[in-house]
Amino acid sequence: MTVIAVLPNSVSIAPAQRLALGSRFLLVSWTMDGSAEMIGPITPNVDGEPVRPPFTTLTIDTGWGGRRVLSILAAPRDPRMPVHFIANNRVIAELRTETGAADLDPAGLLGSLDGAARLRVLRFLFDFACSTPALRCDAAFAGLCRRLVLDRAAEPAPLVLRASAGGDLLLCAGALSGRFGAISGLVVLSPNAVIRAPFDACIGPDPAGKGRIAFDLLIDRGLGVPGNLLVVLGANGVACRRFPDEPAGLPTLTDRLNARPDTPAALRHYLLSCLAQRGRSHASAASAVSELQALAPLPRRQAADAKRPIGASLDLAVPTADGGLFLAGWLYDPHGLAAELVVRTPFGGERRVERFANRFPRDDVAKLYGSTGIDSSGFVLHLPGTPEPAEALQVTAELRLASGGALRLVPPPRPRAHADARAAVLGSLPPRFATPELLETVIGPAVVSLHAAHLASRVEPELVVYGERKTKPAVSVIIPLYRTLEFLRFQIACFATDPSMVDAELVFVLDSPEQRDEVVHLLRGFHGLYGLPMLLLVQSANYGYSAANNAGVAAARGNRLLFLNSDVVPDRAGWLPQLVAALEERPGIGAVGPKLLFDDDSLQHAGLYFDRDLQGAWYNHHYFKGLPRDFAAACRPRSVPGVTGACLLTTRAAYSAVGGFCEDYVIGDFEDSDLCLRIRRQGLDIRYAPSVELYHLERRSIGRHQGYTRGVASEYNRWLHGRRWADRMAELMALDWHADDELPPSCNGGTRKTAQVTR
């Protein structure tokens, strides 16, 4: 709206003075009688048209009872045009531009103003500059601000540089008068710019005990250079500090915190918050967050007082790369006092939990509180979210009460290694409470992300060669090694004394690299003793049964692949050619497996099939397990739904067609049946060859894996397997697997007649 102002010759129109703020803005000032009524919003006007933003106005009381009005606006395009200031549709002040008009004295700008009013003027200037790019980068304006500040503090005290931090930041510290009041703003003045400090300050007690206000501040290294000034705006004043030269050998932030274990928790929280904020756009700052949490974590905090009517603890909090957050802990709340749990990550992420599903008993909590009823205080949760700049190692939480109070909870840092975090998730609840729904909605999402991150950390395995490698071996025998080595000497001795093994390639894959030196020495001794050529691959970490086998295949040279456990020992020589003959007996066979025996000569495996438990979940079973070695039905070669990976022979073509072993399973369970089901999906048959007999000292290696023995890994693998293959397993088990082949005259060989069956 165009305002037609009254002529500027009215006695009520105040004459205004001006001060150039750089090359593009003006600061206009005039005074009014303090007895005048408040005039409301003021709008600058040039040639009858309102001035476009940005502009701002400040009215302050003077020391003599009047009012001073300051207005910042863009300079008119025509410097000869007067500027009118309008309030309530009338002109209250005018800036004339005729020759000889007096300019505002910068030194007198703050004259006749008390401390509070001076602070308001300085903040007025700094706030407008920080929000106006064209002004904050104007060297003339920056010079004006420096003169105004240094007029009040000619010799600013120096800050102290404490440490360097990720994101190219410096930690500096200073002190202020105890009367300074709360810090309300921080501005850096360089010779050419006015820049708002990137972070607020962390206020702490005066370490000298003199009643001063101590503060720490993270600042960009490019801002904290000599010549720049830090202006601190407070409730009761303005302070100025200068940046000193950066000293040689300035410690890193992590080194400083490690050297000062008594660092206040408030400062650690401040540092984490600032680094996390910077980490959203700066990779090194995001890495520094993880580093600080690993080396200087917040102390664990829980509410576990038996005398109080409510208690809670977060025993495990695992943020994952996909933005998810897994929580495990307990809540004792018999009176229903809790309203919600609020969990925060260092990067600003927040999750709220109002309902704690998936509850289970916690004997330790029941004992603490003397609970006599049915305890269900334990819980596990998975809270989805968006990915953050880095995976946080530690979160904080509040259990908010319906009354408005809150209990602060701090869990321990999550295990840094993804495999350890995965094991912690799998071990967070007793297996009997791992329902399919819980595995689907809570355990599964966390494990999938952690397992993928663990596999993504793989590097090429170390290769150790013993003897001269075969160019075209008849069979490549892939043998994963994990912890259990006591049966290796029996297995290799059987290979060495079996003439039919001369054309086989032995590929050992060590999946427990901490045993590297022991295994290298052991195989060197066997090679020296027997002269057997061998290949050893040393994985950089424990990546699991599937990954070990796939790594072995990648290094192997044979077109036939035998997957063999290290605790499987042949009963007699000549077994491998018989197994190869069974594989190549007819076209369309994708895999074969032998008869496996326990050490008491009872049957361990005569083919693998699928069945349901009482809850309807699918699991793997072996035909005739525990029956005598010569049980008639176990002596008949036939097609079977699958065979165990403890000894499975296939071709490279079949293996490649299905993509090798699926690496989604953890530890070592169900990978073999998954492979068999994918082989069958290719239209290939799987055969059981009872004429080949080996001893299998079952599950000796897996029994040494804490992730398997102390958690729900097996339940997770079974859930994953059933989720993928339930329909196919049902189809296969609807067939009659006992009617396709005639019983041979001898369990250990002989002639036989077969009837081919397509399944």
What's the topology here?
Blueprint: E1 14-15, E2 17-21, E3 25-32, E4 43-46, E5 49-50, E6 56-61, E7 67-74, E8 83-87, E9 90-95, H1 115-130, H2 133-136, H3 139-150, E10 157-158, E11 160-165, E12 169-176, E13 183-189, E14 194-196, E15 202-204, E16 213-220, E17 229-234, E18 237-242, H4 253-259, H5 265-279, H6 283-295, E19 311-319, E20 325-332, E21 338-344, E22 350-353, E23 359-360, H7 363-369, E24 378-383, E25 396-401, E26 406-409, H8 418-426, H9 436-456, E27 462-466, E28 475-481, H10 488-496, E29 504-510, H11 516-530, E30 534-538, H12 545-555, E31 560-564, E32 568-570, H13 575-583, E33 589-597, E34 603-605, E35 608-612, E36 618-622, E37 638-639, E38 647-651, H14 652-657, H15 671-681, E39 685-696, H16 706-709, H17 713-733
What descriptors fit this protein?
elongated, five-stranded mixed beta sheet, 759 residues, alpha+beta, single chain, disordered N terminus, 39 strands, 17 helices
Overall description:
The chain is α+β, with helices and mostly antiparallel strands. Helices cover 25% and strands 28% of the residues. The chain has 17 helices and 39 strands. The strands form eight sheets. Strands 27, 28, 29, 30, 31, 32, 33, 34, 37, 38 and 39 form an eleven-stranded mixed sheet that branches. A hairpin with an 8-residue loop joins strand 15 (202-204) and strand 16. Helix 8 packs antiparallel against helix 9 and helix 9 packs across helix 17 (713-733). The protein is elongated. 41% of the residues are buried.
